[in-house]
Structure formats: structure tokens, C-alpha cells
Design goal:
Largest sheet: 8 strands, parallel
CATH topology: TIM Barrel
Number of domains: 1
CATH architecture: Alpha-Beta Barrel
Structural class: alpha/beta
Helix content: 40-55%
CATH class: Alpha Beta
Bound molecules: ligand L2XQQQDX, manganese (II) ion
């Protein structure tokens, strides 16, 4: 018996003594996909072949060699990442990652630009999620899109939103499960606006236009994402939390909670059980703000654990969709995906290994001492042995051994791509 197996058997006994069925927890973990965000692989550049600056408050910092410059490079890098992550996971595409043989503006995109992704995902058993891209475009350069005072600019972005829903619904039909299409717009202002009301009225109206056509929920789920502030929208964001909470409730949309989009002391883990009283489902953008919405790689920190505990303790696994949202160009980009995804799954496993009923019984009985003792003891239970066993039995490296594969890949492939900066380069211009 391997050391991993021996440790697992001991862990299984320890958990069984607490009434936890380790095998059932692992089986549940296998059914929960994480949606990997394509934009970590190339610093949110995409394949439109323009020189448009990212802008809109989004910033990727770092100059690590090996940025994916073509769709083939990005797919290859994703393959490497998925091969180091246990389980079968989704892919979250932004609209600017389509394949364009000729200049195609955002309001003109169609399923033909994403058929290559659909085929690639079908071959690998990944399902797709999608996002309209309301940034990195001349018509977004003044910080306004769907709430723009100019009706022509607003219409351009409405048409982009409509095109994206059509694409997402076709993705959902092709893959046999709903594609989540998440709307985030950067609209806001650097300084205090004189009118906070009109842009919000325009945004609500424009969103209603975008969502006018109904698609089967089995194919498409619409979600909306708020933000507290961004670079250049420090004083006012049109799509605030209150705006989208109200919008999602009244229009029966999914609410997207991004861990970096709230006050630094505010946590999304505490929002899950409240918002799910009123919205049908949630999309999470699991991220890590450091002082601000800095989109750092997700680490195994208290908030990540709390998010996963809330999903499991509430029995919300089928109503909460887990996506990632970070971009770091200061480290190996494939490693960034693997670190963030493995941590997310590890935290989910830890939550699934809790004796949930015992904890909730203690609380209901008023035994708060017992609750605290058990919660603290759980922190040093051997969940790492269960995780290692899950990795081994899934055919992915155990522990930090996956870094060997990353180093070898970097030596063989990424280093040969040369130094890349976190901006568009001439090599990715079609
Ligand atoms: C690429 C963006 O980060 C993403 O679309 C959005 O979800 C966001 O979080 C903007 O801050
Ligand atoms: Mn986000």
C-alpha cells in the first residue's frame, strides 16, 4: 500500500469517528465543477487582433515570460493546467477570445467565432461559460458602456450583449447544459457625479433590452456582476451591489458575487445565504483582493474556506456556480490557474468533510462551547490525506509534485515564447 493510501485509510477512520463518510464527500466533490477563466492565460488580451488597451479599471501587472499569444497556445496551456487539477472542470470564455479571420466588431460576433472553442471543449469534456466584453474597446474608453448617455454607443453595447447571449445559448445547446453568461460593465466615474440616478436608469433599461429574448434555462443562465469601485471609477460605479441585487431579484437573474468587488472588510461568504433567499442561483467569481480588487491568485485563506463552508453548510451546491477570476502576470500563468483551482477544490473538500449535522445540532441545542471546540478541532483533521488520495486516484500529481511538470513545461515551451509583457504584442495581431 502506498504512503498516500496508508495516510488516507487513517484519515478515513478519523473522519468516520466524527460521523463523516469520506468516500461520499469525495464523490460529491467530483460532481462540482470549477469554471477556469481563460483570461489568466494571456493577461486579458484575447484574439481580436487590435491594439486596444485593457482599461476600464482592469490592470494586469507582471512580466513573466510565456504569455499565450495565440488561440493554440492558450488551449495548450489550458490543457497543461487541467492535467494538473483533479476532476472535470469548465472553461469560462470572454467574448474577446473568439477566433476572427477578419476584423469583427463586438456587435457583429456570432457562434462561428466560437465554434473552435465548442469543438475543443467537446473533445475534452469541458463545458463552457461565457462573458460579453464591455472593455478594451474605443467605445468603452470614456468609462461608459450600457449606461452611456449617447444612445448610439449604448445601442452598440446592447447589441454586443444580445450577440453574446445568443452565442452562450448555442454553447449551452451544444454541450447539453446551461452556459452561464455573466454581464459585468465597468461604467462609473472617477469623481463625484452630479447625477447618480440617470446612468442607473439607463443601465437598467439597457439590460432589459439585452435580456429581452428568453432562452431555455437548460441552455442559458444570465448573471449580473456588481463592483464597488475600480481604477478610474473610484467615486461611483453604476452597477453597484444594490443596483444588481435589485435587478437580479426583480428580473430573476443570477447574481455574480466577485470576492474582490466589495469593501476590503466585507466578505462574500456572508452574502451567500442571504442572497439565495431572493435570487434563484449565484455565480461566484472566486478571487483575492489585496487592499483592492487586485485579482490576486486564490490562496487557501480563511475567506476561501468560509465561502466553501457556506455553500456546503447551506446545501447550496446546485445553486452556486463556482468560477475563478484572477489574473497574475508576475508568476507562471499556468501555475496560477493550478494554484487557484486546486485551492478552491481543496477548500471545497474540507467543507464537505465537516460533520455538518453535528455542528448544526450543537448550535441548535445552544451548546456553543461544543460547536467552537469541534470547529477548531476540524482545522487539524487530516483532510490533506484525503486530498492527496483524491489527486492520486484522479491521476494528477500529489502535493507540490505538480510543480515539476510546470517547471519542465516552462523549460520546454513557455521560455521559448520569450519575454512577454502584460499588454498586447504585435505577435497576437491577426
Ligand atoms: C475580466 C474581468 O475581471 C471580469 O470580467 C469581471 O468579472 C471583473 O471582475 C471586473 O473587475
Ligand atoms: Mn469578476
Amino acid at each position: 500500500m502506498s504512503d498516500t493510501n496508508k495516510a488516507f485509510e487513517l484519515a478515513r477512520e478519523r473522519y468516520a469517528a466524527l460521523g463523516v463518510d469520506v468516500d461520499a464527500a469525495v464523490e460529491r466533490l467530483k460532481t462540482i465543477p470549477v469554471s477556469l477563466h481563460c483570461w489568466q492565460g494571456d493577461d486579458v488580451v484575447g484574439f481580436e487582433g487590435t491594439d486596444n488597451e485593457l482599461g476600464s479599471g482592469l490592470a494586469v501587472t507582471g512580466n513573466y515570460p510565456g504569455r499565450a499569444r495565440t488561440v493554440d497556445e492558450l488551449r495548450r496551456d489550458l490543457d497543461v493546467a487541467y492535467s494538473l487539477i483533479p476532476g472535470n472542470h469548465r472553461l469560462n470564455l470572454h467574448a474577446l477570445y473568439g477566433e476572427f479571420s477578419s476584423p469583427t466588431d463586438r456587435n457583429e460576433i456570432g457562434i462561428q467565432n466560437f465554434q473552435g472553442w465548442i469543438d475543443w471543449c467537446r473533445d475534452r469534456h469541458h463545458s463552457l461559460d461565457f462573458n460579453p466584453s464591455f472593455f478594451a474597446h474605443p467605445l468603452a474608453s470614456d468609462g461608459s458602456t450600457l449606461s452611456h448617455p449617447d444612445p448610439a454607443i449604448r445601442q452598440f453595447w446592447i447589441d454586443h450583449g444580445i450577440a453574446c447571449r445568443q452565442i452562450a445559448s448555442e454553447m449551452g445547446a451544444a454541450q447539453g447544459n446551461a452556459c452561464i453568461n455573466n454581464v459585468w460593465v465597468p461604467d462609473g466615474s472617477k469623481d463625484s457625479p452630479a447625477d447618480r440616478k440617470a446612468p442607473r436608469e439607463r443601465l437598467a433599461e439597457a439590460l432589459d433590452e439585452v435580456f429581452r429574448v428568453a432562452f431555455p434555462e437548460a441552455q442559458l443562465l444570465d448573471s449580473v456582476e456588481c463592483k464597488l469601485f475600480g481604477i478610474g471609477s473610484e467615486s461611483y460605479v453604476v452597477g453597484s451591489h444594490e443596483f444588481y441585487l435589485g435587478y437580479a431579484i426583480t428580473r430573476h437573474k443570477l447574481l455574480c458575487l466577485d470576492a474582490g468587488h466589495f469593501h476590503p472588510t466585507e466578505v462574500i461568504s456572508d452574502k451567500i445565504s442571504s442572497t439565495l433567499l431572493y435570487v434563484p442561483e449565484l455565480l461566484l467569481h472566486v478571487s483575492r483582493g489585496v487592499r483592492w480588487d487586485s485579482d490576486h491568485v486564490v490562496t487557501f485563506n480563511d475567506e476561501l474556506q468560509a465561502i466553501m463552508q457556506e455553500i456546503v453548510r447551506g446545501g447550496f451546491e446546485s445553486r452556486v456556480h463556482i468560477g475563478l477570476d484572477f489574473f497574475d502576470a508576475s508568476i507562471n500563468r499556468i501555475a496560477a490557474w493550478v494554484i487557484g483551482t486546486r485551492n478552491t477544490l481543496k477548500a471545497l473538500l474540507m467543507a464537505l468533510l465537516e460533520p455538518r449535522e453535528t455542528l448544526q445540532d450543537l448550535e441548535r441545542d445552544g451548546d456553543l462551547t461544543g460547536r467552537l471546540v469541534l470547529m477548531e478541532e476540524l482545522k487539524s483533521m487530516p483532510f490533506g490525506s484525503v486530498w492527496d488520495h483524491y489527486c492520486e486516484s484522479s491521476g494528477v500529481p500529489v502535493g507540490a509534485a505538480w510543480l515539476d511538470a510546470i517547471r519542465e513545461d516552462e523549460r520546454r515551451v513557455l521560455a521559448r515564447r520569450g519575454n512577454s509583457v502584460a499588454t498586447a504584442s504585435s505577435e497576437n495581431i491577426a
